[in-house]
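Give me the 3D structure for Centromere protein X.
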Amino acid sequence: MEEIGVGFRKELVSKLLHLHFKDDKTKVSGDALQLTAELLKIFVVEAAIRSVRQAQAEDLAQVDVEQLEKVLPQLLLDF
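Predicted structure for Centromere protein X (79 residues):
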C-alpha cells in the first residue's frame, strides 16, 4: 500500500489531549504528540477498512454509518 502524507496535525492532537487533561499545566512532548497522531491515523484507517468489509458482507455498494456502528464495538476492544 502506498503511503501518502495524510494524518492528524500535531496542533489538533494537542488540542484534543488538552481538552481532557484535568490540570491545565500538563505538557505533552513532541514525540508523544507524533505517536498519538500516528495512533489516531491507524485507528481511523482500521475503522474504514472494517466498515468496508462489513458493507461487502452485507452486499452493499456503499459504506454508511450503520456499518461503522456494527464494527465499532470490536474495534474499540481491539485497541
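Residues 52 and 63 are 6 Å apart (CA to CA). Let me know if you want a second pass.
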